[in-house]
Amino acid sequence: MTTNEDTVAVFTGKSLDSILGEGGSQSWKLDAARARKCQYVVCTQNAHNVEAYADGTEDHGSAFLVGRISRIVPATAGDPARWKIQFSEFARISVSDVWTGDRNPVRYTTLDDLGIDLTDAKFEKFEDQSTSTQAPTTEVAALTIRQAKAGLAKTYDVDVDAIEIVIRG
Q1: Is residue 126 within 8 Å of 89, Cβ to Cβ?
Q2: Which residues have CB under 8 Å from 163's CB, separation 6+?
Q3: Which of 42, 63, 19 is nearest to 107 (CA)?
Q4: CA–CA distances in Å: residue 115 to residues 31, 62, 64, 140, 157
Q5: What domain of life does the UniProt record list for this protein's source (predicted)?
Q6: pLDDT 10s digits, 42-83
């Protein structure tokens, strides 16, 4: 294991347009706490995926997107126990043979280990369009302390007993 992991590499059947349309790369079974320590997500193409959602057209095993991770949140599609990797900006890249045939479609690594150099990468700001049709709301649903602790524990991938909430009035 590399001690300075800065990247989550994923092996996806989805296209760049699908990933952008969903507001990030999802539905991953991953270690959320470990992924939150990473700076980048690199999407590599699984051109052999036969699932209905698979619409990618890049060469098999090639890296086609690098994003600067902004958040790791519960997935909005598929299994809610899985995770979405959101990013604040992204660059289109084309690097052949990045995926090494790992059995798990999620790998923690470094850009260097993947052979990716960002010197010439042109990053674009990413505006999450997946929720932009919803009207902004300032109203927050009421929560119990137990519900708040459970939600925070899930978000930060810690035991619920590790969450302390202080209310000052």
Answers
A1: yes
A2: 149, 152, 153
A3: 42
A4: 23, 11, 13, 45, 30
A5: Bacteria
A6: 999 999 887 777 888 899 999 999 999 999 999 987 787 899
